[in-house]
Design brief:
The protein is an alpha/beta fold. 35% of the residues lie in helices and 20% in strands. The chain has two domains: 2-152 and 295-327, Rossmann fold (3-Layer(aba) Sandwich), CATH 3.40.50; 156-291 and 346-357, Rossmann fold, CATH 3.40.50. The longest helix has 22 residues, at 154-175. The structure holds 6-O-phosphono-beta-D-fructofuranose.
Length: 364
């Protein structure tokens, strides 16, 4: 029997379970393959005792519409930076990658499928360079990978954000208010841009375009006549004013890989007040609601395609590559290509020009 190990790494994302299910369904059509899952990315392999889950058809039945991941995930640590506590209570990291590869060999693992974003695929590339038979499946709620047209989970997040804009419109209009919705988007403003367009927001603030607070205020004021009117602002968590840094929160989670962003909407309210905004303002931070719940049909379909393709890449021995969607094909790209160029909203992005065409201000 041959064994493929599946891991889900980084932040969770609607559709992860649909990928896992598709891998198992496709593998079950081959007589000589079994699928196992490592709990919490590669932690399950590195822990003593190891924690793995047998992923047979029974284990994955009906999970395609469940949010989260049945094998759990983590965006801390990893085989190359395993957190270890020093005697004085401080933390350090150690490289356990070779030990992990040896353990996988001992467990009879022939191939690994790592489902994760840019950080996770960097780990995949490094493990591949050390000789591991590994394949990547792209996952990012922020849609910030350029090596694939899109990833599962993103459209679900856009739908959740758009539903929230729709809800804020009626309350904003009833109270003649400025309603600010903070959405995810660390370095890339795709969720904000799509939700602002779909929801008909007046202002969209994204990490790629630092905003001028006076321009934001100008747009707000243009929407009020004798204090009557309303404004919807969609702001990405990574957005900030010209010359300012992203709003970061202190984070004491050991081995956390990114800065923890928080407070973009609160900061905008303060900046607007300082700039002289007299209108009533309220803010909503959507947070992890965008990552939870049922994936929409589009994401389930894409996730299923990714899962089937990933297993077929295992059969074909296409190690060192990540699944990629290039409309209308599901294909693959070398890890190196997958992790070098991020997918940011650029000034000439068609959707960006379209947003300006319907009068959305980016505060620039
Ligand atoms: O990178 C994806 C993302 O959803 C970011 O938009 C966000 O800043 C981050 O993950 C939050 O991750 P965590 O689960 O650690 O709060």
């Amino acid at each position: 029997m041959k064994r493929v190990l599946v891991a889900t790494a980084g932040g969770d994302c609607p559709g992860l379970n649909a990928v896992i299910r598709a891998i198992v369904k496709r593998a079950s059509q081959e007589r000589d393959w079994e699928v196992i899952g490592s709990i919490q990315a590669f932690n399950g392999i590195l822990w003593e005792p190891t924690e793995i889950k047998i992923l047979d058809e029974k284990a994955v039945a009906g999970i395609h519409f469940q949010g989260g991941t049945i094998i759990e995930t983590t965006n801390r640590g990893g085989p190359f930076a395993w957190p270890v506590k020093n005697k004085d209570g401080s933390w350090t990291t150690v490289d356990r990658s070779e030990e992990m590869i040896r353990k996988l060999m001992y467990m009879g693992v022939d191939a690994v499928i790592n489902i994760g974003g840019d950080g996770s695929q960097r780990i995949s590339q490094a493990l591949y360079e050390k000789g591991l038979n590994i394949i990547g499946v792209p996952k990012t709620i922020d849609n910030d990978l350029s090596a694939t047209d899109t990833t599962f989970g993103f459209q679900t997040a856009v739908q959740i954000a758009t539903d929230s804009v729709d809800k804020l419109v009626t309350t904003a209009a009833s109270h003649n208010r400025v309603q600010i919705l903070e959405v995810m988007g660390r370095d890339a403003g795709w969720i904000a841009l799509n939700a602002a367009t779909a929801g008909g927001a007046e202002i969209c603030l994204i990490p790629e375009i630092p905003y001028d607070i006076n321009k934001v205020l100008e747009k707000i004021n243009s929407r009020f006549v004798r204090d009557r009117g309303f404004v919807i602002i969609v702001i990405a968590e990574g957005a900030r004013a010209v010359g300012k840094d992203m709003s970061e929160e202190k984070n004491d989670e050991v081995g956390y890989m990114n800065a923890k962003l928080s407070g973009a909407a609160s900061r905008l309210v303060e900046e607007l007040k300082e700039a002289g905004c007299k209108h009533s303002m309220r803010k909503t931070v959507l947070g992890h609601i965008q990552r939870g719940g049922i994936p929409i049909a589009y994401d389930r379909v894409l996730a299923t395609q990714f899962g089937v393709h990933a297993f077929e890449m295992v059969l074909a021995g296409r190690f060192g590559e990540m699944v990629s969607y290039r409309h209308p094909h599901i294909t693959s790209v070398p890890f190196k290509e997958a992790i070098t160029v991020p997918n940011y909203v650029t000034l000439d992005t068609a959707l960006m020009n379209n947003a300006r065409g319907v009068g959305i201000s980016f505060g620039d």
